[in-house]
Design brief:
single chain; alpha/beta; globular; oxidoreductase activity; GroES-like_sf
Length: 1199
């Protein structure tokens, strides 16, 4: 009923009214009230208070069985073993005939490690039984096996073996009995009996690796040190076993781990051929462990490459020069390609792995596993976006496969596509769930929460990220609480060994990798919040105030503050009403009062919150070095130097060569030395204990040099040594930079030169060292990691990489700019580039008024952003603007351009890369891609300076350049018109004219993605069938939606009446609530005629340049609504956050291939092109910019 506060209040009233209730003439408090109060606290998971209440109740009525039972369950839940033992003894004394109290007492002694007493309790109980248990009674057999476990854990293995033999006929779980016998024989060094026992177990399960390990130990075979002769004998033994157990994979696989040389080659050859012939998808995963030995990896590579060559030529794995009688199945070649692709991916030979997997896909394009592997290869190569696309392509081949659906979701999150990831994972949630995300949280789907939390973290959305990590923490708390019910159940059902295993599992629960990752991330966020509270607050605001001016942000915050105050005042009056509504909305989506996780970010004690996550790691994961490094960070900020030093010493014991540890030691010494307020005794102890990890006879520079010498050839250690040198003394900057640049030409670093560490080096060179050689290092990274998007999409451009690393343009009429960028950039003080722009100083025909202008940009201010344009489209509205017939007219100015006459830059739409950011700008970084958030910016130029409110960020490389350049006009217009006027349902129809226009094509595709049918009119033209076919391909395929194309003339002459029209489209009950008009004139009137009652006709263009005619009958009898839409106006009247959400949705549609490209022609414009030639290129495509001219878009590309 969700009235817990009322329940607590009533119990408190009961206690206050009956504290001195009468009981048998004596004054005592009410045990019932205290017991109920305890139950209430227990239901709230407040175990400490519940225990106090039970204790009060027992003081009043110490023999109350129900209170004692609840009390004992709470004690074992809280792991208070001493008190639990006392409570079990008391329960047994009150009811000595109850089996579960005997068992409970035995367990309590066992947990206290009183093994002899625990055994005696069970033995005594068995002797009290008047009726002997029936043979093979499960409960009795489990109790006997549990007693044997107690004896075993006491250390008396001989006695445990004797006891085990005595209970053989009474135990149901024969396999467990046999396993224990084999283990005991081995521990007692009875090798012959142990061998017999393990052979019996292998008969039961010939695929259990543990049994084979036990067999070898019983035979005194050291599998890790076999000589040549022993290996031959070892293989012979396993061949005999393989004959006896032909279906056992373990028998075939096990020898590969412990043989070498020619023996290994012979064994693995047979193993690989058999698996490739059968087509075992998990073959590579199965043998991957063998790659720990480089010799074995080389043998496998040689063999499988030989298979591939032989299969290609002779259709057999091996060819000995004679005619082949028995050929391998065609699938053998496919599985060999599949294996080799994974093999070379493991070696990080990305190009070769991609060639192999692409050949496999070409061979069999319907096999899901191939696309999954391609996605992994691309991910390992550093192209997360393409990896996601490959994984999604595989997912779409089998929409019923939950595994690949989950993998695809993970890749979407790795690529930052949160909305699309939630939609994808939601396909496998309960259909009756109020919300897919809520269902995932209820089902404790921790992998998703962890990945999404880390995705939010990468986007600096700390509130949402912390929310996910706290949800994971709550899941572990819930799992801990869930054991409560098993305390009584397991004693009643006598599943004692399983119960003991559960207790021990729960005790180490938070050492689970999911908790560790969540805690690690949460701690790092809280440390960041502590270090930079004001900066973090600003970053969190970016999600709500992105691209606003300082004044707008101030107003928005003031407005939000007033709204919050008002809401607080109204809260009390609405509380009862909300509770009543909550009762009625049982099946609806639960309300989330803090979707952004603000309460976590706004904590007043971030270090305290970090410590809450750290404490379980300290207790349960003390062997992981990350635990102590995190503890060091927390304690250092608390200035608890002794605890920080203890963390460093413990980390040093685990791995003294850990790079992070080395830097932390230096940080610690410098912090302690600079802290003038440190206690003298603490300083003395620190100095004494510090010698454990750093001798004070060695200076910090020498300490750093020794560390580097100990770890020669390691790139991570090299990076830390260089940064530590700068930390020790900034005057060592040049020496530190030289250290980093060793990676470029020194091949000894090749083995440890991974993509993540190279990115860290590049970032360090660029930001920490501000090195001019950062670009040289980036270009070298391109050679090492050829498909990695990070190194391809450079934030700094040199002449050598121009035009080669950009995405290919595929969509609409685009003017893609490859111009020379700057060789060096800082965030503000950069040499500003020369701009080449297409401008006009008066309105008129483009050929008469346009000219090319070259000018130098002014210095970048702290509140502005420097852009380098990548691609721009030429839209009809751009030409209308130049002609002066478009409502939006950019102002003519002189100041920016340094011209005698005032001019404006043409163009409204485009995509640019951020190449410089002012110090006070939030939400943008060098390397980001941006689109225009306001019309009239002037995009037909190579570079520009923009205010943050004029641009909106998109993920670099998340979509191709042409799609990014055309995101904000045609696609956005189509999206808004379909979304804003009518609540369209699946199966509805939308009718539009100009169906082959840019907006029209976007409407078809978005409508298809949403399950909406489209009716599209186009002008009757010679290539009608060709255009019809193209539009059908955009909206057809295997989709259930219809894409109907009809000429304007046919619509007017053949299907004027609504019945005729509905018959033509094949749906006499069709609902057509929305019409879209970009032509006007008679065409608009005709499509309005076929709208359903109360439908909307949205006009967004007038390409015919004829007026809109609205018959009165349409208003009177059909109640039609006629409205207009203009994207520029929508941008001015809607918040930036809504604009951002629209862009995210459109990008997701493009990434999942639901919103595709336009047909285009490409023209090129070189950076050296002179002004006359440049204008000629523009003039050449102006006439083609009107989509109804011939339906093919133009691209002007600057190379």
């Amino acid at each position: 009923m969700d009235r817990k506060e009322e329940a607590h209040e009533l119990v408190r009233k009961g206690l206050s009214n009956d504290v001195k209730g009468t009981h048998q003439g004596n004054y005592k408090g009410s045990h019932i009230c205290w017991h109920v109060y305890g139950l209430l606290h227990r239901s709230d998971k407040n175990y400490g208070q519940a225990l106090k209440c039970y204790t009060h109740a027992l003081k009043i009525d110490k023999h109350n069985m129900q209170i004692l039972l609840d009390y004992s369950l709470l004690l074992i839940q809280m792991r208070n073993y001493e008190a639990f033992n006392d409570s079990q003894l008391q329960l047994l004394s009150l009811k000595p005939n109850n089996q579960k109290y005997w068992i409970g007492l035995a367990i309590s002694h066992h947990l206290l490690k009183n093994y002899e007493t625990a055994e005696k309790v069970l033995t005594t109980y068995e002797s009290t039984l008047k009726e002997k248990p029936i043979p093979l009674d499960f409960e009795h057999g489990e109790m006997l096996m549990y007693r044997n476990l107690i004896i075993e854990e006491s250390g008396d293995i001989q006695k445990a073996l004797e006891n085990l033999e005595s209970i053989k006929d009474k135990v149901c779980d024969i396999q467990s009995w046999k396993e224990k016998k084999a283990q005991f024989m081995l521990k007692l060094e009875k090798h012959q009996e142990a061998e017999e026992a393990y052979r019996e177990l292998i008969d039961l399960n010939p695929d259990c690796y543990e049994y084979f390990e036990g067999l070898h130990q019983s035979q005194k075979i050291n599998t890790r040190e076999l000589n040549e002769e022993q290996q031959v004998e070892f293989l012979r033994t396993y061949k005999e076993l393989a004959i006896k157990y032909p279906r056992s994979n373990a028998i075939k696989r096990f020898p590969l781990q412990y043989t070498s040389g020619e023996n290994f080659k012979q064994a693995v050859d047979e193993y690989l051929q058999s698996a490739l012939r059968k087509g075992v998808p998990s073959l590579f995963v199965n043998v991957k462990k063998l790659y720990d030995d480089p010799e074995k990896a080389s043998i496998i590579e040689s063999l499988v490459e030989g298979y591939l060559e032989s299969l290609k030529k002779y259709e057999t794995f091996t060819y000995n020069g004679t005619e082949v009688d028995l050929k391998e199945p065609p699938t053998a070649y496919l599985w060999t390609l599949y294996f080799l692709a994974q093999h070379f991916d493991y070696k990080r030979d990305t190009i070769k792995a991609l060639q192999l997997i692409n050949e496999a896909i070409e061979h069999t394009p319907t096999m899901v596993e191939l696309y999954m592997t391609k996605g992994r290869i691309l991910k390992h190569g550093g192209d997360v976006c393409e990896a996601m696309k490959a994984m999604n392509e595989g997912r779409e081949l089998d929409l019923q496969d939950r595994f690949i659906n989950s993998k695809c979701t993970k890749y979407m999150l790795r690529n930052g596509q949160i909305a699309e990831a939630e939609k994808t994972i939601g396909l496998f949630t309960r259909g009756d769930a109020p919300d897919p995300l809520t269902d995932l949280i209820d089902m404790q789907c921790m992998w998703f929460e962890l990945e999404e939390g880390e995705c939010f973290l990468r986007q600096n959305k700390f509130g949402r990220s912390l929310k996910r990590f706290h949800q994971i923490e709550k899941h572990f708390a819930d799992i801990t609480d869930d054991q409560f019910d098993f305390h009584s159940y397991c004693l009643r059902k006598v599943t004692l060994r399983a119960y003991l295993s559960m207790l021990r599992l729960e005790d180490r629960l938070r050492s689970h990798p999911y908790y560790f990752r969540a805690a690690q991330n949460a701690i790092k966020i809280y440390l960041t919040l502590y270090d930079n509270p004001s900066v973090i607050a600003e970053r969190e605001d970016n999600s709500n105030f992105a691209n606003m001016t300082e004044g707008e942000i101030k107003k928005a915050k003031s407005k939000a503050k007033k709204a919050a105050a008002k809401a607080q005042q109204e809260a009390e009056s609405k509380k009862a009403q909300q509770e009543e509504q909550a009762k009625k909305k049982v099946g609806e989506k639960p309300r989330d009062d803090d979707p952004e996780g603000e309460k976590f970010v706004k904590t007043t004690d971030p270090l305290g919150e970090a410590f809450k996550f750290y404490q379980p790691l300290q207790e349960l994961s003390p062997k992981r070095i990350e635990t102590h490094l995190l503890g060091f960070e927390v304690y250092l900020r608390k200035k608890k130097y002794l605890l920080a030093l203890r963390s460093l010493i413990q980390a040093h014991r685990i791995n003294s060569n850990n790079p992070t540890l080395h830097q932390d030691i230096i940080r610690f010494e410098k912090d302690v030395a600079s802290d003038t307020s440190i206690n003298l005794i603490v300083a003395k102890v620190v100095t004494e204990q510090l010698s454990i990890i750093h001798s004070q006879d060695i200076s910090l520079p020498e300490f750093n040099t020794e560390f580097l010498e100990r770890n020669k050839g390691s790139v991570p250690h090299l990076l830390v040594a260089a940064e530590s040198l700068l930390l020790i003394d900034p005057s060592y900057k040049q020496e530190a930079e030289d250290l980093l640049l060793r990676v470029i030409d020194n091949e000894e670093y090749a083995k440890t030169r991974t993509l993540p560490i190279c990115i860290n080096i590049y970032e360090s060179l660029k930001k920490t060292f501000n090195s001019p050689k950062a670009e040289q290092f980036r270009l070298k990274c391109k050679e090492w990691f050829p498909i990695a998007t990070y190194v391809k999409q450079a934030t700094i451009f040199s002449n050598a990489c121009l035009g080669r690393n950009r995405s290919s343009v595929a969509s609409k009429l685009c003017f893609t700019i490859w111009s020379r960028g700057m060789s060096e950039l800082s965030r503000v003080k950069a040499e500003m580039p020369e701009v080449k722009a297409v401008v006009y100083g008066k309105y008129g025909q483009p050929k008469e008024v346009l000219r090319v202008l070259k000018y130098r940009l002014p210095s970048l201010t702290p509140t502005s952003v420097l852009l380098h344009f990548l691609a721009i489209p030429i839209n009809p509205s751009d030409i209308n603007q130049i002609e002066g017939v478009y409502p939006l007219r950019p102002p003519f100015t002189r100041e920016e351009f340094g011209t005698e006459d005032a001019v404006a830059v043409a163009g409204n739409e485009g995509v640019a890369e951020v190449i410089g950011v002012g110090d006070q700008v939030k939400g943008f970084s060098v390397g980001d891609w941006v689109v225009m958030s306001k019309a009239g910016f002037g995009t037909w130029r190579t570079h520009a300076i923009a205010k943050p409110e004029e641009i909106a960020r998109i993920e670099p490389g998340s979509i191709d350049l042409a799609s990014a350049a055309t995101l904000t006009v045609n696609n956005a217009t189509a999206y808004r018109m379909l979304k804003d006027y009518v609540k369209l349902k699946k199966g509805d129809y939308v009718i539009q004219n100009g169906g082959n226009s840019g907006v029209g094509q976007a409407v078809i595709q978005i409508a298809k993605a949403w399950g909406i049918n489209t009716i599209n009119t186009i002008r009757d033209r010679p290539d009608f069938e060709q255009v019809n076919s193209r539009l059908q391909s955009l909206g057809g395929g295997e989709s259930d939606t219809k894409t109907i194309v009809i000429s304007d003339q046919d619509l007017e002459s053949k299907y004027r009446s609504k019945p005729q029209f509905l018959k033509f489209i094949g749906d006499e009950k069709a609902n057509i609530p929305l019409g879209l008009n970009c032509v006007s004139g008679d065409s608009a009137t005709m499509i309005a005629k076929h709208l359903s009652y109360s439908g909307y006709l949205v006009t967004y263009g007038a390409m015919s340049r004829k007026p809109l005619r609205i018959p009165a009958s349409m208003l009177i009898f059909d109640d039609l609504r006629f409205v207009g839409y203009w994207m520029a106006n929508w941008k001015e009247t809607h918040p930036i956050q809504e604009y951002r959400e629209m862009l995210d949705d459109l990008i997701a549609l493009i990434q999942t291939k639901k919103l595709g490209s336009f047909v285009y022609e490409e023209n090129k414009w070189g950076d050296e092109t002179d002004e006359k030639e440049l204008l000629a290129k523009f003039y050449e495509v102006f006439d083609k910019a009107y989509p109804d001219s011939h339906g093919v878009k133009q691209i002007l590309k600057i190379h």
